[in-house]
């Protein structure tokens, strides 16, 4: 089977959930019998990493119209010169300009979240949001099948975009589980990262934007310190809220208890997960899956999630205790306090890793994805 995968960026160049999934599938689908070619916006690394099979059609910082026009040209070239059996796209914007070119080609859309609504949460202009919604609807209604990461996002597609539920398949996200299963102990990881050896450490890795709930997580640490004064919160990631989060921590007297690391490489992440006693995903809106939950479990570190979007679906079969009763600082502080006091049972390292390996490792999800592609080709 030959598949043309249209992405957003190449993950090593830009960090994001969509880019991680795209990169992971590009790596793992060949093992499931899928010959992958691909298009993204970015630099030369994708082409270098894949011997030219995945290449960029424009720079990521080119104007929107330039990128849309370039994506159309690149799509046309791929369809003429390589004749894929199926086109699988992960970002509506880079498909909409070439919808007319896809006549006769089956199209699968990987839905990673409501692009328009995410912009709205981050205070984009109303017109900006309206245009994005129209772009999304045009592409999703043309698709033969849509793959979502969770039941929560299936409901978003049906309720917000009027997509027929029969056209939707649920295939969860994936990570390279063995990559996060490092040989270092928690103490050794802390020594390597220059983190305290004898203090409880809470870890979060998120883009520093409003919907991620990091303000509530910092407030939760302020509450937690009343009983656990040595607790340390380590946050990895960058974004527009960096200065605001630093100021929030300082105002709460947490300068020595909250560490914002900024961007962290994929190579460093396994050590950070291993160094932590527990991870937290404090999202307050629009979370379709949360790959970081699987990353943490892969490293053997339990992860608490808010009851938002698809997060509960990821961990519920492992332990209901990993799901917070609601969003907000009090819920986070209470559950962390129970964990540190030993009054609530959470999965141990072996259970966490085994669960991730069985359900979310690259070969497992690549096979499920390839099966959906084949079903679409067979129907066509």
UniProtKB/TrEMBL annotation:
Pfam families: Glyco_transf_4 (PF13439), Glycos_transf_1 (PF00534). It comes from the Bacteria. CDD domains: GT4_PimA-like. The keyword DNA-binding does not apply. InterPro entries: Glyco_trans_1, Glyco_trans_4-like_N. Residues 16-177 form the Glycosyltransferase subfamily 4-like N-terminal domain. Residues 186-343 form the Glycosyl transferase family domain. Keywords: Glycosyltransferase, Transferase. Belongs to the glycosyltransferase group 1 family. Glycosyltransferase 4 subfamily. This is Glycosyltransferase family 4 protein. It comes from Robbsia betulipollinis.
């Amino acid at each position: 089977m030959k598949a043309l995968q249209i992405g957003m960026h190449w993950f090593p160049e830009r960090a994001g959930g969509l880019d991680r999934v795209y990169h992971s599938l590009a790596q793992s689908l060949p093992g499931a019998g899928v010959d992958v070619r691909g298009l993204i916006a970015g630099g030369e690394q994708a082409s270098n990493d894949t011997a030219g099979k995945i290449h960029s059609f424009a720079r990521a910082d080119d104007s929107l119209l330039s990128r849309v026009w370039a994506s159309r040209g690149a799509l046309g070239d791929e369809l003429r010169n390589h004749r894929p059996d199926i086109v699988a796209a992960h970002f509506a914007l880079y498909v909409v300009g070439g919808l007319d070119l896809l006549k006769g080609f089956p199209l699968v859309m990987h839905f990673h979240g409501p692009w328009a609504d995410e912009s709205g949460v981050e205070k984009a202009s109303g017109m900006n949001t309206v245009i994005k919604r129209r772009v999304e609807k045009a592409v999703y209604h043309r698709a033969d099948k849509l793959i979502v990461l969770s039941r929560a996002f299936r409901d978003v597609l049906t309720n917000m975009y009027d997509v027929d539920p029969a056209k939707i398949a649920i295939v969860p996200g994936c990570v390279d589980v063995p990559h996060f299963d490092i040989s270092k102990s928690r103490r050794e990881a802390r020594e390597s990262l220059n983190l305290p050896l004898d203090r409880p450490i809470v870890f979060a890795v998120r883009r520093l934007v409003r919907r991620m709930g990091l303000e509530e997580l910092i407030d939760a640490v302020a509450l937690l310190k009343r009983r656990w004064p040595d607790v340390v919160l380590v946050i990895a990631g960058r974004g527009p809220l960096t200065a605001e989060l630093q100021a929030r921590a300082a105002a709460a007297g947490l300068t020595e208890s909250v560490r914002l690391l900024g961007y962290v490489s994929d190579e460093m992440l396994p050590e950070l997960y291993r160094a932590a006693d527990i991870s937290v995903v404090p999202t307050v809106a629009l979370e379709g899956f949360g790959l970081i939950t699987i990353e943490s479990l892969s490293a053997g570190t339990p992860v608490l999630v808010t009851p938002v979007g698809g997060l509960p679906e990821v961990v519920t079969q492992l332990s209901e205790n990993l799901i917070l009763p609601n969003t907000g600082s009090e819920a986070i502080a209470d559950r962390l306090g129970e964990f540190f006091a030993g009054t609530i049972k959470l999965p141990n390292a072996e259970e966490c890793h085994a669960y991730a390996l069985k359900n979310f490792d690259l070969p497992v999800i690549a096979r499920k994805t390839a099966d959906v592609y084949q079903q679409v080709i067979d129907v066509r």
